[in-house]
Amino acid sequence: MTHDEIIKALFDETMIGNAPAVLELTNKALAEGMGPDTILFEALIPSLEEVGARFERGDYFVPEMLIAGKAMSGALNVLRPLLAETGAETVGTFLMGTVKGDVHDIGKNLVNIMLEGAGFKVIDIGVQVAPEKFIAAINEHQPDILGMSAFLTTTMPMFKVNIHEITKAGLRDKVIIMVGGAPVTQEYADAVGADGFASDASTAVRVAKDLIQKKRALVNA
C-alpha cells in the first residue's frame, strides 16, 4: 500500500470503529517508516473530527462515537510512547474528573478520547472527586484546563463549591474551568462561574482549543 492508501484506509476504518483494522494499519504504517505524528495528524485526528461533525449533524449517535473513539484509542496506545520520544507538541494539558457524589463516567471518558485524539494530554482523576482532590491535582499537574462533569441535577451544585474552593486556594486564575454533563446548560455554567461549557464531546474539543488560544493570546499580549 502507498502512503496515501494507508492514510485513507486508517481514516475510513477509524470512522466505522474497526479497531483491529486500525491497529493493524497503524503498525503497518510504522513498519513502512511513517512517523507517529503523520499517522495521528493526517489520518486519526481528521477521522475523529469527521465523526464529531457527523454527530453534530445528527448522522452519528453516541454509540458510533464511542466505537470510533475506542478504535482510535487502540492506535493511540501504540503511538503515545513514540510521540513522546519525538517530542510532539501537545495542544495543552486537560485535567478531568466527575464531581463528588457522582459516579457517571461514560460521557467523561468519551470527552477524554476526543481530547486525546485532538492532541491534548489528558489526566483523568476519576469519579466522586472532592474539591480538595481537584485542588491537589491542579497543583500537581499544572493543567491548562480543568474539566468537571456532573450527570445528576443533585450533584451539579458541586461545580460552584469546587470553583469556590479553587478560588480560595488562589488557583482560579491559573486554570481554565470547563463544565459539562447531561443536565448542564450554558446558563448554568455561566451562573457557577465556569469559563466554558460543552454539551457533547465534539464541542468540548472545539471549546477547549478556543479557550487555550484566547488565554495564550492574553498572556502574550
TrEMBL record:
SUPFAM superfamilies: Cobalamin (vitamin B12)-binding domain, Methionine synthase domain. Residues 1-91 form the B12-binding N-terminal domain. Belongs to the methylamine corrinoid protein family. InterPro entries: Cbl-bd_cap (IPR003759), Cobalamin-bd (IPR006158), Cobalamin-bd_sf (IPR036724), Met_Synthase/Corrinoid (IPR050554), Meth_synthase_dom (IPR036594). Residues 91-221 form the B12-binding domain. One of its GO terms (cellular component) is cytosol. GO terms for molecular function: cobalamin binding; metal ion binding; methionine synthase activity. Keywords: Cobalt, Metal-binding, Methyltransferase, Transferase. It comes from the Bacteria. This is 5-methyltetrahydrofolate--homocysteine methyltransferase. One of its GO terms (biological process) is tetrahydrofolate metabolic process. It comes from Candidatus Planktophila limnetica. Pfam families: B12-binding, B12-binding_2.
